[in-house]
Every structure is written in C-alpha cells, then in structure tokens.
Amino acid sequence: MSIRGELTSFNFNLYAQLCGLLSCVLVIVLSAATAHGGIWYRVLGIIYGIIIFFIEIPIFGKLVPSGGALENIFGGKKRAWWRCFLYIGFAATMWAAVNKGNHPSGVSAWFLTMTALFYLAAGIRGDEPATSILTGGTGVQE
C-alpha cells in the first residue's frame, strides 16, 4: 500500500503512529533547544522523545525485551489503549511545562494530545494494529 493509501485508510493506529513520530521529533527538539522553563521538564521531554521513538518505530521496538506478565497487563505491545494512556501522561507533563512558563512545549504537548486522541479512536473502533510503511512496517492490508 502507498502512503496515500495509508492516509485514506481511516485506520487511526496509522494516524496515531505518524502523529507520534512528529511528536517525538518536536519533543526532543523543543526540549533541547528551549532555554525557558525548568530543567526537569526539558530532561523529561528528551526522555519521552526517546521512549516514543522505541514505541513507534517497529524495528527498534523489537530491541526492547518484554515479558509475558507485562503483555497480559497491557494486552500486547501493539494495543491502542495503553499507548493512549501513555501519551495522555506525556501530554499532561508537557502541558504542565507550558503552565510553568515553557511555552514552546505547547506545540509538542498539542501533538502528544492529538496522538492520544488518535489512539483513543483506534481503541474505540477496534482498529487492527498497523504500522506505517514509512517506519518499516507492513502498512494496512487491503
């Protein structure tokens, strides 16, 4: 499937993954380049960006070992629900940074919130887990 086909597939997992990758870049860049706000928010932003990188790019996600108990709790690594809650937590931290005066973090907080909403929509609709061909995934099966 092509990139255009992925964008018109109405698979919210794909939309969330692409938005998550954009969030990853923005969180790292804005956290590293911002001189405003607390240092802890900047460090957390960089850590969140690295975590998002491992979550959203399939080949790097395989480098992280996972146990059976963790899979049972979250319903698998590719489930939209736990990713939704994770992104909500990340977004809440970035919104707190904005509240403390780190205003450039608002852009990354907005994209993290959008990613959480896309994963929420995927969870509600029951979309099958899919990964974009841009990140080395299989795309949506036609």
In short:
By secondary structure, the protein is mainly alpha-helical. The chain has helices at residues 3-7, 12-33, 39-56, 58-61, 68-74, 80-99, 105-125. This is Golgi apparatus membrane protein TVP18.
Structural summary, described in words:
This protein has 142 residues and is an all-alpha fold. The chain has one domain (17-63, 75-135). It has seven helices and no strands. It has helices spanning 3-7, 12-33, 39-56, 58-61, 68-74, 80-99, 105-125. The chain starts with a helix and ends in a 17-residue tail after the last helix. 37% of the residues are buried. The mean pLDDT is 80.
Tell me the strand percentage band: under 5%
Q: Low-confidence spans: pLDDT under 50, at least 5 residues?
A: none
**Structural class computed from helices and strand pairing:** mainly alpha
By DSSP (H or I, 4+ residues per run), the number of helices equals 7
The beta-strand count equals: 0
Instruction: Give the H and E element order.
Output: HHHHHHH
Tell me the radius of gyration.
15 Å
The biggest sheet, with number of strands, parallel, antiparallel or mixed sense and barrel status, is: none
From the spread of the alpha carbons, the general shape counts as globular
Average pLDDT reading:
80
Cα distance, first to last residue? 8 Å
The domain tally reads 1
State the helical fraction.
Answer: 55-70%
